[in-house]
Structure to design on (217 residues):
């Protein structure tokens, strides 16, 4: 009897993962997603020890994190709003005058569209897409010093930009979706460098985990 119940439970889960095509339509449905990936930066960790003290710096980690919201305007076209960012640099210096630290990060807020193709994939579990978005990139840099005196300074630099990308959504049942995508970010220069660079244009690789809800149309 227990074996029969186990088989029934597995069959139920399998059935949920292979929901009929009509349950995988995206028209007039909402989606929220968590995005993880890498930006165009690479790790650059350096530690210097000298008579004056110890200095440690970490270049752009390349880790990209963010969230996104999507809405299906039709079965083949979706509105997409995304926000994310990465740590551009971290630097710490310890010497006779005290401890100095500096951190920098770059965030992006973009609004765009995704076009799903070809039409034969509408309602299926695998949905290839191309997309474009535009918005703003915000660089922030903060420096502080703790010693005989305490000081801090914060600076924010905005820049306009956008991205072009492509990827693949994989719908699991009627409510869950995973995705893998590639995008090329384009932006204008910051007025002053953030984390040692005035421009972070370049490739991004992303992996997404989302939840789809709404009755659709």
């Amino acid at each position: 009897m227990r074996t029969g119940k186990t088989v029934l439970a597995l069959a139920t889960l399998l059935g949920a993962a292979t929901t009929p095509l009509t349950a995988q339509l995206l028209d007039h449905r909402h989606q929220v997603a968590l995005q993880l990936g890498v930006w165009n930066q690479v790790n650059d960790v350096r530690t210097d020890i000298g008579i004056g003290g110890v200095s440690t710096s970490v270049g752009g980690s390349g880790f990209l994190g963010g969230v996104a919201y999507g809405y299906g305007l039709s079965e083949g076209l979706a509105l997409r709003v995304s926000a994310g960012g990465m740590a551009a640099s971290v630097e710490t210096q310890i010497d006779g005058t005290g401890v100095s630290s500096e951190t920098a990060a770059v965030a992006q807020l973009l609004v765009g569209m995704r076009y799903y193709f070809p039409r034969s994939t509408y309602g299926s579990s695998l949905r290839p897409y191309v997309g474009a978005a535009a918005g703003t990139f915000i660089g922030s840099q903060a420096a502080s010093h703790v010693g005989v005196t305490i000081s801090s300074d914060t600076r924010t630099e905005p820049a306009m930009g956008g991205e072009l990308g492509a990827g693949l959504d994989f719908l699991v049942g009627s409510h869950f979706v995973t995705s893998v995508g590639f995008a090329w970010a384009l932006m204008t220069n910051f007025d002053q460098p953030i984390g040692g660079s005035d421009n972070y244009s370049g490739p991004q690789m992303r992996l997404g985990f989302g939840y789809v809800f709404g009755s659709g149309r």
